């Protein structure tokens, strides 16, 4: 709880000392052993943490939930935000655990847990709620604290980790019969590593700061706004707030942080740069495999957010929504470049079998589902077109017949990658996007 992690770069410490020498060392998580959906419990030497541990009778005071490769979401004094698990340091003598559901989560349950946590990003921290969770139950508000966020995320997937998700403390999560401890997830930092770890910046912090600036400006318009999703809901009903929120997007640096990420990690976006990067082969392999493992969850949040803002802007035209469409178009594109680079690097070493490009038949149910995720406006227009024509064999754009199926030579970032066109629409489309018969 509180902001135990951010200021100390924390990590956690399993109380078993069998593997340690007489000198206690700072420790870090072995992130390759931790999976999305895992519950991470930690503590710090701070007084608040000590008080929480004393009251609850537990050796931990903070809870987080893993949502992706080296990424956790938690609630601290900064509010609900993502953090880089690899940058969290456990101070000597501090406890840390990773817990995993006894019964493995289904894909739908895992996506529900992750979606709940991500949707809460930006929500303010409630110190009063955290205190009440340790002492007694009260009426739950919309603000968050660490253990409530974890328990509510699981409850959204139909899983009760504790008897009262709205008011629980980390010690209750630690004792949950629905969770089991994952062994050996921590390792000591050597003296040489420690200096590097403490000096290395937590790059996720800049995104937390930008998000909080944006939300503070939004709350000037409506004090009940908690999360980023609340901004969208407010703006749908209050178009007069558009200019203020557009200015907030720009002054907060929220729209431009991807530039810094690209500069910092440019080797991840092109296989040639990856080949020449000075990281070890093992480090590159681990990075590539973990990135693709996350991708297999089947929920690319950049694609989904792009589709959501396309839909919002179609129904409620706002410059704020249009800027978000542009942002997620860019983020999805860069993510696709990372996936391609990682895939190619692994394939070159025989660590991954090449997978033929999968093309969807235009106007099939799978085709529409894929298009809706990326561009729900275009999907709705095409559905209306073929409904009016009374046939699915017509052009996706104008409903003329005859029409033939084509694949984009350079597929878009997301979506089906195919389209059904008449000759006239083919000529128009081919000017910007070369097509080939499918």
Describe the structure.
The structure is a single chain. The protein is an alpha+beta fold and 438 residues long. The chain has 18 helices and twelve strands. Helix 14 runs antiparallel to helix 15 and helix 16 packs antiparallel against helix 17.
Number of helices: 18
**SSE series:** HEEHEEEEEHHHHEEHHHHHHHHHHHEEHE
* Name of the CATH homologous superfamily of the largest domain: endopeptidase domain like (from Nostoc punctiforme)
User: What is the typical, i.e. mean, pLDDT?
Assistant: 87
**What are the low-pLDDT stretches, counting only 5+ consecutive residues below 50?**
1-22, 133-139
Q: What would you call the quaternary organization?
A: single chain
Radius of gyration: 24 Å
CATH topology of the largest domain: endopeptidase fold (from Nostoc punctiforme)
Distance from first to last alpha carbon: 55 Å
How do the strands line up in the largest sheet?
5-4-3-2-7-8
Shape: globular
User: How many domains would you count in the coordinates?
Assistant: 3
Structural class: alpha+beta
Report helical residue fraction: 40-55%
**Gross CATH architecture of the largest domain:** Alpha-Beta Complex
Total E-strand runs: 12
Described by strand count, sense and barrel closure, the largest sheet is: 6 strands, antiparallel
């Amino acid at each position: 709880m509180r902001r135990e992690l951010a200021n100390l770069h924390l990590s956690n410490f399993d109380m078993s000392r069998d593997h340690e020498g007489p000198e206690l060392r700072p420790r870090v998580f072995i992130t390759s052993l931790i999976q999305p959906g895992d519950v991470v419990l930690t503590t710090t030497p701070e007084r608040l943490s000590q008080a929480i541990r004393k009251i609850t009778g537990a050796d931990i005071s903070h809870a987080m939930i893993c949502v992706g490769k080296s990424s956790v979401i938690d609630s601290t004094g900064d509010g609900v935000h993502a953090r880089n698990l690899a940058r969290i340091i456990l101070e000597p003598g501090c406890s840390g655990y990773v817990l995993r559901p006894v019964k493995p989560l289904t894909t739908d349950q895992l996506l529900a847990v992750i979606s709940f946590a991500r949707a809460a990003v930006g929500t303010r921290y409630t110190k009063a709620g955290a205190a009440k969770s340790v002492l007694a139950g009260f009426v739950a508000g919309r603000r968050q604290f660490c253990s409530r966020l974890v328990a509510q995320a699981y409850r959204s997937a139909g899983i009760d980790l504790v008897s009262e998700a709205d008011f629980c403390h980390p010690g209750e999560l630690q004792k949950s019969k629905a969770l089991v401890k994952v062994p050996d997830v921590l390792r000591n930092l050597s003296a040489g590593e420690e200096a590097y770890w403490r000096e290395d910046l937590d790059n996720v912090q800049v995104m937390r700061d930008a998000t909080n600036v944006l939300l503070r400006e939004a709350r000037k318009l409506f004090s009940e706004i908690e999360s980023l999703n609340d901004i969208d809901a407010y703006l749908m009903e209050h178009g007069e707030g558009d200019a203020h929120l557009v200015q907030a997007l720009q002054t907060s640096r929220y729209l431009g942080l991807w530039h810094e990420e690209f500069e910092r990690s440019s080797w991840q976006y092109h296989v040639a740069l990856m080949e020449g990067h000075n990281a070890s082969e093992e480090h590159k392999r681990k990075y590539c495999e973990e990135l693709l493992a996350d991708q297999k969850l089947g929920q690319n949040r950049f694609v989904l957010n792009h589709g959501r803002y396309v839909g919002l802007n179609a129904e409620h035209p706002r410059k704020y929504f249009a800027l978000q469409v542009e942002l997620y178009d860019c983020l999805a594109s860069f993510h696709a470049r990372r996936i391609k680079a990682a895939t190619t690097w692994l394939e070159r070493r025989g660590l991954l079998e090449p997978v033929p490009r999968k093309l969807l038949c235009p106007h099939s149910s799978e085709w529409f589902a894929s298009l809706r995720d990326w561009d729900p406006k275009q999907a709705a227009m095409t559905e209306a077109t073929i409904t009016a024509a009374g046939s699915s064999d017509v052009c996706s754009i104008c409903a003329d017949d005859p029409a033939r199926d084509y694949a984009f030579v350079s597929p878009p970032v997301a979506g089906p990658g195919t389209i059904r066109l008449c000759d006239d629409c083919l000529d128009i489309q081919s000017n910007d996007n070369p097509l080939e018969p499918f």
